[in-house]
Amino acid sequence: MDFEFKEEQLQLADALKRWIARDYGFETRREIVQSEAGQSDRAWATLAELGLTALPVPEAQGGFAGDAVDMFVVMQELGRGLVVEPYFATVLGAEFLRLGGGHGGLLERVAAGDLKLACALGERQSRHDMRDIEMRATSAAPDGDGWLLNGEKKVVLHGAQAAVLIVSSRSGGAQRDEDGITLFAVPADAPGVHITGYRMLDGQRAADVRFDGARVGADALIGQPGAGWSVLEAALDYGAGLLCAEAVGVMDALFAATLDYLKTRQQFGVPIGKFQALQHRMADMYIHLEQARSMALLAAVRLRSANGDEGRAAERRQAVSAAKYRVGQAARFVGQQAVQLHGGMGVTDELPAAHYFKRLTTIELTLGDADHHLARFMAQPGFTGLAA
């Protein structure tokens, strides 16, 4: 299998890397994180100018129809730069709209950089199981056309920064059934929608969103009523694949920062990087990083091949869960080793290493942790377990 990137992909990565180095340094990022908005409109405009908001959008809606491998390149660089703008939340929401169909106008606004999205999927009891939905969607008739939404969503990434929320709800079936799930694109300012934003461990923003009889029209539907699971699962796999790519970029940057620290920190008159025991630990970190990179790239290739094709869904599930598990393991190992090698400075807010570690920790817990994806991988058809 060819794992070489195209020239256009490398050029995009290089342009993004130059912008981050020039205009999105560590201190600039800290100022953005500590601001009231938690994001920079200027940075978002630059992402749109670079074509990143249009990259995953179909050509019919003004985008470039970029696939999962194209997005791997982008997310890796955003991870290296610890970019906190709501790019991941928006492109994940765009994937819901693309898979569900019928929302060309919203996708056009995403491509132009005029619309930020957020995905309101998880609930208090659901943890990593996105089938576990208590939120209800009921027909608004005879009072009128459309639907009424009641329930609450937790830890909605960039929920307070989004203009439209992609919402999962239950219009039928039991609480954890795959049947009966209905998806909606809900304006964040719709009556009955209450958003409480906050800052997370890694500096990015999230929100809890409560729906108290929020009314949406029939045009808010994504896909067909009660048949949203296939779209939901495919989009979640896409999002998990993007997070794996971002984590690889974060680990890349953290490994480089740790190596630089070992070359400059002096002990007993020599750089501590001269000590063989520390060299062995760096070698172990590198092995974990490269294994994670390989698995994340394989997941991107499988996502590109599947591209919403239900006939290749099993292949997609296996690759994504394997990658999320391996990347989660590597993120924990690389992060913990880096903090220890930095010593007490490794957990201070003034040093980038602490911020990289926090982001890796958050990624590992987003859209299913390592344990969740290991169990999901083992549940796939054809898995026979380890030989005795």
UniProtKB/TrEMBL annotation:
Acyl-CoA oxidase/dehydrogenase middle domain boundaries: 118-209
The Acyl-CoA dehydrogenase/oxidase C-terminal domain, residue ranges: 226-373
Transmembrane stretches, start-end: none
Cofactors named for this entry: FAD
Keywords: FAD, Flavoprotein, Oxidoreductase
Classification via Gene3D superfamilies: Acyl-CoA dehydrogenase/oxidase, N-terminal domain, Butyryl-CoA Dehydrogenase, subunit A, domain 2, Butyryl-CoA Dehydrogenase, subunit A, domain 3
Protein's UniProt keywords contain Flavoprotein: yes
Domain Acyl-CoA dehydrogenase/oxidase N-terminal: 7-83
SUPFAM superfamilies with a match to the protein in the record: Acyl-CoA dehydrogenase C-terminal domain-like, Acyl-CoA dehydrogenase NM domain-like
Keyword Hydrolase in record: no
Family assignment from sequence similarity: Belongs to the acyl-CoA dehydrogenase family.
Protein name: Acyl-CoA dehydrogenase family protein
